Amino acid sequence: MSVQSAQKAGPADAKVTPMMAQYIEIKTANPDSLLFYRMGDFYELFFEDAEVAARALGITLTKRGKHQGEDIPMCGVPVHAADDYLQKLIALGHRVSVCEQTEDPAEAKKRGSKSVVRRDVVRLVTPGTITEDRLLDAGANNFLAALTRLRGSSLGGDAVYGLAWVDMSTGSFQVCETDDQRLASDIVQISPRELILADNLLQEKDFRQTLEQAGAALSPVPRAYFDSATATDKLAQYFGVKTLDGFGVFSRAELSAASGILSYIEKTQLGERPPLDPPARQSGNGRMLIDPATRSNLELSRTLSGEKQGSLLATIDKTVTGSGSRLLASRLAAPLLDPEAISKRQDAVEFFFENEIMREGLRQTLKGAPDMARSLSRIALHRGGPRDVLAIATGLRAVRTAFEQTSKSAEYPAEIAAARTALGNAPHDLGAELDRAIKEDPPLLKRDGGFIASGYDENLDELRALRDESRKVIAKLQADYGEELGLRSLKIKHNSVLGWFIEAPTAQTEKMVADPGRFIHRQTMAGAMRFTTTELADLESKIASAGERALAIEMEIFDRLADAIVESGDLIKAAAHGLGVLDVSAALAKLAQEDGYVRPAIDGSRAFHITGGRHPVVERALKTSGGDAFVANDADLGPRTETDAGSIWLITGPNMAGKSTFLRQNALIAVMAQMGAFVPAYSAHIGIVDRLFSRVGAADDLARGRSTFMVEMVETAAILNQASDRSLVILDEIGRGTATFDGLSIAWASIEHLHEINKSRALFATHYHELTVLSAKLDRLSNATVSVKEWNGDVIFLHEIVPGAADRSYGIQVAKLAGLPPSVVERSKQVLSQLEEQDRSSPAENLIDELPLFATLQPAQPKTTRCVIEPALEELDRLNPDDMTPREALEALYMLKSSRLKNSDPIKN
Ligand SMILES: Nc1ncnc2c1ncn2[C@@H]1O[C@H](COP(=O)(O)OP(=O)(O)OP(=O)(O)O)[C@@H](O)[C@H]1O
């Protein structure tokens, strides 16, 4: 049965039970999410929700009662394990409304035996708004992003986009304005878990596809969320300020996106306000542009198969805190373009590179520092528990220690100095108070009590003493009863149903049964009987009331401490960020020291001069597996004269020699350098790279109807259309996905375009040896090859990049190494020698002399032959509107449209 039919029945339906009526009412108000409906110790789901959740969670689908003559499907999850189930549902992109009982069942009963306990949705859990530790990845941000589109742009172009993104678990809040060209790259750089946008935008198919590529859960919301006219007021109100001037200047698109995100947070958090930082404007122009294909091809934060392990991020991440790890990931995702800003980060790394003892001491402290930002956010949202308070206490202790540990040097680089200031300004008095207040191993939930340390509150201590005293009296009572009745096996026990009771084996309860005035029978078990006495009942109520009063005091203290923490929230957040900065700088310094990395020189030139460069991931893998050492290689793509553009290296060489590795390592070195890290090289001088492009081994994108070759060409087109003289381009085996001559021609023309038009610094690896002749005509193109040795007919890879061109690919030798049957290897050799014989007279040899250079070419004007629109026009001519009914006119229009679509464009040749 569908929930819609249940909704249609409505609460007024006579056959609907009062509880079902309540359920339907709440479900109708929350149609876009699975409703977790609290019933005792379970969250129950009904109707379609139950079917969806049972399938997703692999739990049993049962039924409960009937609705309009049909069974109501139901499934449930126990409250204590709800987080695990939530995690699964959220990971699958579902949203969940959590509906709680908002009154005691006893209260409901007072209104009549049939009245239903009041319930209300207290929270909407969505992928982008979770704050629970168990649902979050410690080392990764959990971004909720909002996207808005405005027509007419300050950047030029047709439309302008506003992006806002928030990590509710840490409070970070950023906005930027972007355009059609950058949009996909910007979203992938943010890598949001959930992306909200106006529902009308999501209906545009192409747009939707672009967004789906980014891998975020898409949540459509009403357009009104993004109203830019009221956005300023909305933001000002959220942050309790009169004007936003103090936060900076924002564009209309940015304000609209920021307002959308706040509306969504208010809706999902039902009025609770997470402590967000004021929005910080991220300038798209300040970050290296890495398009989505390049980002995934270079395996920056995930490998092509989606794993973290084996990515650049996993290889270079030596941070020891969650906030450090998140900061490192965000720096890697957005390398900078300003040499000065990069240099500041490098200074901090260099400081810890040189001060090893301080660094290691600090790292030891940081290891014990909990994730204060996330605990703070939970506390502010009233979702925090005693362990979050302990996390703040322990965190502030770490802040104090870190501050003292870094006080041994007189001069600090700016980044470390700023971090130290934040550590120094942390609310240390509050820290000391929390230290005194909270126990070392508190329970998860505050309602369990027992988390306030003894000695902190006199009243609490007294009540606890009373409770403990009573417990001692119970122990004495047990001994007395035992002695009196001669029963050593008599025990006084407690459970939640009976409270305290006396238990003895049935066979020995004769005396108690005989004195029912004193020993009141409560329960008969298999082999045992349970009793109580007035004495015991009195004691029990004393214990209970002391316990209850103690718990009430603990709750009060908790609320007071929580308020104090939230009040100092900004200082705590700043200190947590300070720890993160120290962690990242220390971690990158440690990495540099252990793996022999160097500080690159970065400036505004077009240099790209690397000596002894290595691939950080391959080098680490070789080291770990105990294989051969990685062979370091140089690259120099800088201009030959100061005014010149950068150079292109055309790399030919055998299969398996290390061409792809060399290409990628140089791209990775550029990324690492501009994120402010040291790089795997003996020395590096890099002129800022504005955009990084790569075309390396693509896979089919069948979901979007693109073959391997099509993907390759789409990526190549993007590069040739967008790369500038400040970009770095790496192209690996362009054209290999089609027939040899087509591929060779495309590769040939692409190199010429890169050299003459884009003027980018570029590395181009190819098996088309014919291309090496281009160096004679293109003055900034040099040939390089990877050296190998031949020994007894086999090939030995030296992995050394040297000037010059390869004469052959040694493909057959590599195939032999791969275990191709000997007969196939032999036959291949015969075929090869035949082909080589014919190739000597190949026309490709002479191409260089016969073809004019690219720049001198005018693009051929497409000639239009008979336009296929013509039949449609003829058809149109035959129609006489005056003779047609409106219906016939509409049909004719459909017919014309379909013939237009079938032959969509004029044929060009
Ligand atoms: N500089 C190096 N030092 C040590 N080993 C290397 C080096 N470069 C590459 N290798 C090893 O050689 C293997 C092959 O390298 P790579 O894939 O870069 O070759 P390729 O020339 O691009 O091959 P193909 O043309 O077949 O695609 C790598 O997996 C790596 O283990």
From TrEMBL:
Residues 727-743 form the DNA mismatch repair proteins mutS family domain. Residues 270-289 are annotated as: Disordered. Belongs to the DNA mismatch repair MutS family. GO terms for cellular component: cytosol. Keywords: ATP-binding, DNA damage, DNA repair, DNA-binding, Nucleotide-binding. It comes from the Bacteria. The keyword Oxidoreductase does not apply. ATP binds at G653, P654, N655, M656, A657, G658, K659, S660. One of its GO terms (molecular function) is ATP binding. This is DNA mismatch repair protein MutS. One of its GO terms (biological process) is mismatch repair. This protein is involved in the repair of mismatches in DNA. It is possible that it carries out the mismatch recognition step. This protein has a weak ATPase activity. Pfam families: MutS_I, MutS_II, MutS_III, MutS_IV, MutS_V. NCBIfam families: mutS1, PRK05399.1.
